[in-house]
Specification:
The two termini are 31 Å apart. The relative contact order is 0.14. This protein is flat. A hairpin with a 5-residue loop joins strand 2 and strand 3. The chain contains five helices and three strands, in the order H-H-H-E-H-E-E-H. By secondary structure, it is mostly helical. Strands 1-3-2 form a three-stranded antiparallel β-sheet. It has two domains: 52 residues; 96 residues, no CATH class.
């Protein structure tokens, strides 16, 4: 695949992702909203490509890393309720930082960079955890977590 064609495909991917986020956030989809979202999402896709090129990021992705996406909808709802109720139960609780080894996240190169990016995305999608850093040498993630019952996305993402 030529570089030009690969960049067109990437812009289309980012355009679709931005469009999807926009449409998911709407309470009702009208013709005008759909038209505006289709048009406005395209420059967002171009900006995403330009940003990735400016940061010199090259990611090699494996579909198996995205298995954790199946758990995300349940984890978001579960974590949101638990985080909200935790504020009422123990308002002074601040959570804690933990270190988790990310399988395949150590080293340099597109595959390790992609693995760290996917692990960061999956972990940070839920309200109870956020990745503060991933050491590229060890592949170990520093994650701030609030203890919840249910799926721990930081562990799911690191597998």
């Amino acid at each position: 695949m030529s570089v030009w064609l690969a960049r067109v495909v990437e812009v289309i991917f980012w355009w679709g992702a931005c469009l999807g986020v926009w449409l998911i956030s709407l309470s009702a989809i009208s013709g005008q909203e759909l038209l505006v979202s289709v048009i406005v999402s395209l420059p967002c896709g171009v900006v995403a490509l330009v940003g990735r090129l400016a940061a010199s990021n090259r990611w090699g992705l494996r579909p198996s890393w995205l298995k954790g996406l199946a758990v995300v909808p349940f984890a978001i709802v579960n974590d949101a309720f638990q985080v909200i109720f935790q504020v009422f139960r123990s308002p002074g609780r601040e959570g804690e930082f933990i270190r988790i080894p990310v399988n395949g996240g150590a080293g340099d190169g597109p595959t390790a960079d992609g693995r760290r990016a996917v692990a960061t995305m999956l972990t940070t999608l839920t309200p109870s955890s956020i990745v503060a850093d991933i050491d590229p040498d060890s592949g170990e993630a520093l994650v701030h977590v609030i203890s919840v019952r249910g799926p721990h996305m930081e562990r799911v993402a690191a597998r």
